[in-house]
Amino acid sequence: MQENVPVVLLAYNETNPEMYIYKSELEKSNLNFTPYFEIDNTTPMEEFVQMADAIRAQGFIVHTLNMNDDFSVLYQTVQDIKPDVIFNCVEILYGQARLEMAVAGFLELTGIPYTGAPPMALANCQNKLLTKEILLSDGIQTPEYRLVEHPSQVAGMVFPPFPLIVKPLYEDASVGIENASVVNSVEELTRRVEFVLSEFKEPSLVEAYIEGRELNVAVFGDTNPVVLPISEIDFSTMPENLAHIVSYQAKWDPTHESYHKTIPVCPANLSEEQRVQAEKVAFKAFKTLGLRDYARVDMRLTNDNEIYVLEVNPNPDLSDGAGFMRSADAAGYPYAVMLGMLIRLALNRKLN
Questions:
Q1: CATH number at residue 148
Q2: pTM score, two decimals?
Q3: Taking each helix axis from N to C terminus, what angle separates 335-351 and 44-57, rounded to the nearest 10 degrees?
Q4: What is the pLDDT of residues 298-313, one digit of tens each?
């Protein structure tokens, strides 16, 4: 093994890698719309291979580990290879996104520096209600909301004016957010609340639907974070039957029309005043929630130039071309370079 070359453990958790069945290019002929993006057949497992190769290109020794829901495997690997830093890509544990914090907690106990947010920040951001309360406590606007734990509560609650959007309380990556999540009547609201409670076995967060431009604001750094060029999601070609939201299908289903009608534009075409305002809100949310290294703050900019934070995403997707990396590239940091910079942020914490 090379001396003085940091050893990186790239840890992730994929319990069913065989589940990924991707559509072939031939199926594009069966679509009833013209696709904007090429259909990418790369699986998450292959993306981790690409990620490891990119980190090696930055001069690190890299070991990869699929912990496969088994803490003992993670513990033993850490004991065996004694990494200098752990690149934490674990987003879910035992099928529950809310347990993401448990892995960061374990890494904290090892004393080995790791990339991304600490346990408490992950816990706070995984609970959408708690996130909103923390943001509001620091003067950061977020859509008006109600928490619904049973469909019978709908009749007795006073909600913001329609339209509303219904979200599962603890999911991330737009899980549970679909076109039907935007509701325009008590009947639609009740049906969607019933669906969330039945499908996810967790409360529903009912929010005011904010009309406006959707901005994704990436923040990078630790003690001195910076805001990267802002992305905007262009909904201008979205058909009338689909809501202007970044649904689960818009993010992950290349055969769905919304996937091809939510087009990122980076840098966003904003006035200087709008850009500075969005940057200030994202920076403040990043600091208020105790994040570090990398995060993405999703917000709406209204016609009156008011900003509402929709979601705060610690440890967002680091796939080449995904939201955070798109902003990094626009800032002049190619994929491999940014991965190396994230690792060095973690290593610096060990030195300090």
A1: 3.30.1490.20
A2: 0.93
A3: 70
A4: 999 999 999 999 999 9
Q: How many domains does the chain have?
A: 2
Which residue do the tokens 């534009």 mark?
265
Are 23 and 109 in the same domain? Answer: yes
Q: What is the CATH number of the domain that holds 33?
A: 3.40.50
- Residues 34-37: contacts with CB under 8 Å, at least 24 apart: 34/260, 35/254, 35/260, 36/237, 36/260, 36/261, 36/263, 37/254, 37/259, 37/260
Does some domain include residue 58? yes
Residue count of the chain:
352
Taking a C-beta distance cutoff of 8 angstroms, is the pair 176, 247 a contact? no
**d(C-alpha 272, C-alpha 274), whole Å:** 6
* Same domain flag for 22 and 104: yes
Residue-wise over 165-201: b if at least 16 C-beta within 10 A, else e? bbbbbbbbebbbbbeebbbeeeebbbbbbebbbeebe
Last residue of a domain, one of 209, 230, 263: 209
* Separation between Cα atoms, residue 342 and residue 326, nearest integer Å: 15
Give the model confidence (pLDDT) of 176-232 as tens digits. Answer: 999 999 999 999 999 999 999 999 999 999 999 999 999 999 999 999 999 999 999
> Residue 159 is part of which domain span?
144-209
In a domain, 124, yes or no: no
Residue type for position 31: L
